[in-house]
Amino acid sequence: MAKTLTQEFTKGLWEEIAPFRLVLGLCPVLGVTTTIENGIGMGLATTFVLVFSNILVASLRNIIPSKVRIACFIIIIATFVVVTELLMQAFTYTLFLKLGVFIPLIVVNCIVLGRAEAFASKNSLTFSIADGLGIGIGFTLSLAALGAVRELFGANNLTIWTTPTSVIGIQEVFGTNFEPFTFMVQAPGAFVCLGLMLCLMNLVGSK
Amino acid sequence: MVVVLTVLSAFSGGLLSGLRNATAARIEVQQLKFVKGPAIKKILQGVSNDPIADRFTLKDGDIERKFFVGKFDGKANTVVLESSGKGYGGDVGLMIGVNVENDTIVGAGVTTHSETPGLGATAKDNPAFVSQFKGLPIEETFEVTNDGGKVNAMSGATITSRAVCAAATQAGSIYKKLKPQLSEKLKEFNK
Fold first, then answer.
1. C-alpha distances in angstroms, A56 versus A120, A145, B178?
2. Is the overall model pTM greater than 0.80, yes or no?
3. Which of A68, A71, A87, B97 lies 20 to 30 Å from B66, alpha-carbon distance?
């Protein structure tokens, strides 16, 4: 059953939304989602790598010998990750400092390699771009959602983006008397939060 | 198979080295602005110039050292240099400002570190510890009181305190070694 271009794109937003449905790529999901801003930044970086690696893998899929395909995919992915890293250092340095080691770790994010192997190496260029964009945006949204819950309860803020001069978002959502659950912005809070969100997704999806 | 791998690797290598060259200058500026800039500004409070713009490098053997010039009362008499010491979780970077007229420290600040929050990280967050260096002659060996020196260690963070002392001592030896060239360079800024 051939899918349309729109279906390939939208499947990444709900049906196969990476962290919740496929439960893949959990390292950045758990590691960086202390604020919405970090989640969005990490998600966009991953989307960039995902789209460009999908483009290259799809256009080279008939040239790459199947015996060394994983090696080729990793070269392509690693190249784009370093490109992202350099560009972030040059243009969004404060965000780069916050995300730190998780940017180079996109290389070993199994979503990216997974899409290259399972989708881009078997489908045409346009479909691969749609797939990369869909999965990437789905990943960004999941990270932002998880970041929002954790930041809201853990720090009492909702920060969407910070510029050197101002902060876009709401500070002290519950007022100044609210004592934040610092547990939520620490590592165990990430697991609990992700678990609850998975629960919710399954509950909604099973109906 | 070999051809494909070779071509792919060559392509990615070329792309990355090109991009690295293209972004190197911008990345350096960003690092100066966000990491070192705040520390330098704190050390050189009340300067009349922009120390980040007035910087120069000197060769110390094979290593290039950066110096930031601070002008007070119209005279370029202060330099800030960087050094590092081995801390609890990696290298602790230290910026240290020296008055070249009497070789004393005008201020110091920790820039990069990966020390424990609440213990070692206090070296950066709380200026009380690094302010002990202020006014001391740069060319001495710094040690914490436990080791027989005169720097009071931060409680619970002796290793970090030692790292900062080691960095200050290293800065002293760099300063001593490069002093002649340093004074030459500073004369240019006084013109």
1. 9, 30, 51
2. no
3. A87
CB atoms within 10 A of CB B103: 15
End-to-end Cα distance, chain B: 63
Q: Which of A58, A8, A14, A186 is nearest to B117 (CA)?
A: A186
User: Nearest CA to CA, how far is B180 from chain A (Å)?
Assistant: 35
Cross-chain residue pair A64–B4, CB shorter than 8 Å: yes
Model confidence over B34-65: pLDDT tens digits? 877 777 888 888 777 877 777 888 887 778 88
Greatest extent of chain A over all pairs of C-alpha atoms, in Å = 62
Please choose, from the candidates A134, A142, A177, the residue with its C-alpha nearest in 3D space to the C-alpha of residue A5: A134
Q: Does B146 touch chain A (CB under 8 A)?
A: no
Checking phi first, is residue B61 left (phi over 0); if not, alpha (psi -120 to 50) or beta? left
Find the DSSP H helices in chain A: 5-10, 26-32, 36-59, 69-91, 93-99, 110-115, 125-155, 182-185, 187-205
Helix/strand/coil for B151: strand
Question: Is B31 in CB contact (< 8 Å) with chain A?
Answer: yes
CA distances from B99 to A115, B84, B150, B176 (A): 58, 20, 21, 13
Summarize pLDDT for A18-40 with one digit per residue, the tens.
788 888 888 888 888 888 888 99
Q: Which chain B residues touch A63 with a CB distance below 8 Å?
A: 4
Query: For residue B137, what is the DSSP state?
Result: B
- Helix (DSSP H) and strand (DSSP E) numbers for chain B: 5, 5
Name the burial class of residue A30, with classes exposed (0-12), middle (13-18) and buried (19+) by CB atoms within 10 angstroms of its CB. Answer: middle
Within 8 A of B117 by CB-CB distance, chain A residues are none
Q: If residue A162 lies in a helix (H) or strand (E), which one and from where to where? A: strand A158-162
How far is residue A66 CA from its own chain's centroid? 28
> Is B6 part of the contact surface with chain A (CB cutoff 8 Å)?
no
Out of B4, B12, B23, name the one closest to residue A90 (CB). B23
Structure tokens at B47: 């300067």
Cα→Cα distances B148→B54, B123, B130, B144, B174, Å? 38, 20, 18, 7, 23
The span from the CA of B96 to the CA of B167, in Å, is 9
Interface test with A, best of B3, B12, B21, B34 (most A CBs within 10 A): B12
Whether the complex's predicted ipTM is more than 0.90 is answered with no
